[in-house]
Amino acid sequence: AAAGARWNHVWVGTETGILKGVNLQRKQAANFTAAGQPRREEAVSALCWGAGGETQILVGCADRTVRYFSTEEGRFQGQKHCPGGEGTFRGLAQVDGTLITCVESGIVRVWRDNDKEASSDPLLELSVGPGVCRMRQDPAHPHLIATGGKENALKVWDLQGSEEPVFRAKNVRNDWLDLRVPIWDQDIQFLPESQKLVTCTGYHQVRVYDPASPQRRPVLEATYGEYPLTAMTLTPGANSVIVGNTHGQLAEIDLRQGRLLGCLKGLAGSVRGLQCHPSKPLLASCGLDRVLRVHRIRNPRGLEHKVYLKSQLNCLLLSGRDNWEDEPQEP
Amino acid sequence: MSSVRLRKEIKRRGKDPIGHIPEIILNNFTTRLGHSVGCMFAFLFPHNLQFIRREVATFHNQRDCIFFRLHRYIFKSEKKGGIQELGPRFTIKLRSLQKGTFDSKYGDYEWVHKLWEMDISRRKLHI
Question: Which InterPro entries match (chain A) (predicted)?
Answer without folding.
Answer: WD40/YVTN_repeat-like_dom_sf (IPR015943), WD40_repeat_dom_sf (IPR036322), WD40_rpt (IPR001680), WDR74/Nsa1 (IPR037379)
